[in-house]
Design brief:
Elements: H1 5-23, E1 44-49, E2 58-63, E3 71-76, H2 89-92, H3 95-98, E4 108-109, E5 118-119, H4 122-140, E6 141-144, E7 150-160, H5 167-179, E8 182-186
Parallel strand pairs: 7-8
Antiparallel strand pairs: 1-2, 2-3, 4-5, 6-7
Amino acid sequence: MKLNRRDFFKISAGTAAGVMALGLGMDLTPVKAHAQTLRIRYAHESTTICPYCAVGCGIIVHTSKGADARVINTEGDPEHPINEGSLCSKGAALSQLVNNKNRLTTPLYRKPYSSSWQKVSWDWALHKIALNIKHTRDATFTYKNSKGQIVNRTNGIAHVGSAALDNEECWPLQAMMRAMGLVYIEHQARI
């Protein structure tokens, strides 16, 4: 093999660079890869709509199975026509809504003129709400107006709907409010 001076310096420089690279921690031995198991591997997957604004983004919710079922992950639904898998920062953090130690899980009731709240059962709270609606409706119900026309309405109760409801949920809610005789009904359904 004929080796001139220039080729000798090229080979020497390459060898020196290789030795230095190996001395700096570069290891050329094959590395064994370890894949992590996804935490949603055995989770139940369901779809829902984001509750925050009126856009109506689709969300995939992963819940754990078993007796301690809880939300473990939320992500945008790529098959949803509105958001196509993307979410805003509030929608992306949706799992924090249910996995929050400060979240109220039981109704609270504050008696009139009281300064403290007390925990009550759901049955008691719903019964109390129904009684208050009935009492207010009976006290403010108008059968006939000043002209003697039958109006069957109550002006003592108003209803404001939710932007997170779709039209299918809005229709029976509006029908119930109108059946009770409410006049002041507002709704901002946009999905």
